[in-house]
């Protein structure tokens, strides 16, 4: 009958699988060509009746058992696509997981030893079901009685994967997913529009079993399953598993159509049926020959798939078996078994996944022999009989022995790994071969199709009776007989630009569609009448149009052309409007009322010419070349090219400065976004100001209360007026207490409002950053995909053209394709990491600033960080950064002297690290500015978290930048920090805390620095402050930099950095009044370009070039660290 799905391992279902037809449920093996089945239209999201165009039967040695909604059982091949639900971010969604012992899911443990095929008797020794350990398979309580234990071969990886699901209220989307990619609790589309749940899934080997598939017209989808007594809702599946399956379907369709055309043309007078028939026979022979070759590939691939899955399962069982043994010997219940303690030492650090080495296997065998358990591995006769019938220790020893009998060696792991690699490589080669075969055959079928059309048109021109035969079978489009001057079709334009067309415009386009259709229907009616009349009047002559009909036809073509041109122009105007349209409209209204001056008449004429030129330019870009329509549309909209370097992608996502262009927003959407953002930023700033005022009022009220309490405590009880004063103060205290309570209540409300406003702004930033990473990343992925497709096409041509040294060329192209696939995988991974980084950016983290062993050692025994080595490493890194990043593309001359880069008119000190105050703390310190991004505050200390029972070290943005800039100075001059396992910033934080400087780091920074430096014999030296002129400050800073020092300096953080948005600027980059302080390290200057070279911890991982007068950097307090 043919191939099942026409792919190496066909997409099929077993017999008795129910299919939903227009007349009810019917077994798949009973479906015939021409039957009408229910089908899902992916474009309209509607369920329709569609005709079956082909059926397939095949045999396979392996199937998947799929249980849906706890009741529907389906046996299907591994690659059949179901429609799986995803979130808007592309993640698989689920609202819950199936607990191990929920009524609709039971716990099964993978059988790893012969003795565990029966219910486990030693479970109490190494854990119980509620420990959530082991491997859990969840499926319905009903058994599968037709499957024997030998047939069941579950792939352990399907059940070891840990899945985290999104919340139920996420935005639903969907994708096609092969059965083998489905996981427990995935949701798949049902025929009533709801989502069914995967409640069980595993694969099994079987005797060669007949499986069936259908080909459905247009939609290529049908519905499997459903109960007559229930909702009758089945599950949506696709009849293809891969793109090239559709390709082979097209080839078969062309072959069939050519035979049908031959039959119809043979029945027409003067027809060319015989010639067409001969061509159809030739193409059919090529199809059969290709199918025979694909059948061989398919058989080989089936065997390779079985081999691959067996190797994968084997590798995972190695880990399961070895882990079970290690768990048993490490269990406290085995502590008293002789030799276990020594065995634990010998097996310390073993990786169960990679197997036991030869020496480790000998250790296990030696332990068994020394305990009278036979002659070691593979030689013991001990079973669950008499040898283990004693107490708990004896039972545990027996259990350990039973697990030891199944442990796997590293050699076994190596064999399985090689088998898996070999299978994957051969399967990849098979896929390339099949792709090449498919492309060759498709090219030949397209050529045969073109030759057929050419033959008919050469013999019969546009004679409608012959043309209609070609149109009916899809060999030509009707439009080819009614030419449209636009090379880009209407459907292509709608596909590319449909999302940018407003509803009102869509209604207008629909009206044009109706007019064009009416024209065609009317013309076809008159053509049919004319044709019938001609045959009546001229029975033995070929049809010729009368002059009246020819004129009518030409008029219709002209009218249709005008309508199509107007329709195309409507779309062009929608997506690329003339920017001066309003002014043009105003002048035209005045012209209609004869109210134009001579100057305005000239202006109107110019505007009309401008509009005409604009629309001609737009038409040239959007109506001529289908392959360039997306690129040209981006050009018209001013959309920039996506960054090619992923680092630039992340940078763009962080700044979001070109969000509207990259996302292709219309002007209306841009305006709406700007207005919304303005309101969000205004709400954020207002609520922060209100909160700060409330915070000040709260502090003042609490101070009054403390003052009254102090006065009460100082009263002299022996004084004559004691009672009078006491009564007065108590009244004051009562009033003050009420005031504190009232302010505290209001302050809490202000804080909630502030947090909500900040959260709104932050969520927008996160969402838009993720959208940009996804958009720009996918555009680069698309380019890689196109490159891969081009290479595959080139590979196919090698086979077609009998080129010289084909083996060498195939090897080169295969290598290039592999490289491109690696780039694609790497880019996908980078995108996932970047999006996760956005999610993690605002997560708070904990640290307990406790004492570690190295902290307690005397200096001569303690371990210290090496600042000299660190400085040398950063000299090399910074030299590379200067060349590749800081002055990329610029002609900058410099020489290197020690740890300095000597510029033409300046210097850069190279030995400092790039810090990121929002990342470098890692998962240890809660940074306030991470959550509200205010870059402002005075919190710096420990705070107890009742939920975790730990202390969190809390720093706000201002204090964090001070700590980082000061830290780099300390390390630069060689101050030693203990190396107790913390990062340098953690060590400084601990030092600040122990010296009680957490508040002074914000309120009296200079004093805090002095206290931190005194134990090291260092001091701060002021280079500039607000009392001296800027010129003097700058001169002092530059002199220090020339001496090789780095300078701790203050600045205002309001404003853009190299065009990037920064706190303090509004959405349109209009400068706000400077208000928020920030500290950085100036590491160099460049008088030729008028710039400071700065390490700024608030700008992640980079040196920054700041213009001399930007942000008042260096205008205020600046200092260096020197010896006393």
From TrEMBL:
Residues 10-192 form the Hint domain. Residues 598-613 have a biased composition (Basic and acidic residues). One of its GO terms (biological process) is intein-mediated protein splicing. Residues 698-837 form a coiled coil. Pfam families: PT-HINT. The keyword Coiled coil applies. Keywords: Coiled coil. Gene3D superfamilies: Hedgehog/Intein (Hint) domain. SMART domains: HintN. Residues 592-613 are annotated as: Disordered. This is Intein C-terminal splicing domain protein. It comes from Leptospira interrogans serovar Australis str. 200703203.
